[in-house]
Input
Amino acid sequence: MTTLHQTGRVSLRGDASTWSSVTRILIIALCVLVGVMSVGGTTVIIFVSVTDPSIGPVPLFALIPGLLAMGGMMTWLVSVARKRSRYSATETDPVILDPNGLTMRGVGPIPWRDFGPAQHKMVQAEHDGGFVRRAVMELSPSGLYNVNERTPFEIREKLSPAVGPFWNRHHRYIYIPGVEGLKTKEVMQLINAGHRLFSGARF
Output
């Protein structure tokens, strides 16, 4: 923070944020679970059908929709994992604060006027309809327009997940970036200090 005030600019190595690391672990765990359930369930049903002919072919027919459901789930998880890998590749890009704005995950500078203070808020979860507590910066009216209307889709995804119904998904926040060697709280304090210094904001 001293460097920011003395030179008017600071550049720090990016790192995976807490929510990003948790999401990656969850995806891996779900992939393993779906795989185990698919293989284990198939093995049990085939074994029962072979060892007890009185049951008949009913379990085998019941197996088909179950496998289709598991296949659909695995396809979705793989799709999410691929998107996450593209996102993760940019997390170590420099986090830069200067008079022009905030640069993070290879995006920027994002003008200071386009987002509010860094704070913890309850926001819609990334992959379901629930809510989770995240460290975010809410987009201002100009930020909502610039991100959702003028920014290419693949770049928007680096700022935050889209939320809302499938026919009207949009980005409302910028998720706080990870910074190597700093806790999330410290990154938030640094960004807010930059906001006050360069935009004259009072918070």
Remarks:
- The first helix runs from residue 2 to 7.
- The two ends are 16 Å apart (CA to CA).
- The longest strand covers residues 115-124.
- The chain has a mean pLDDT of 77.
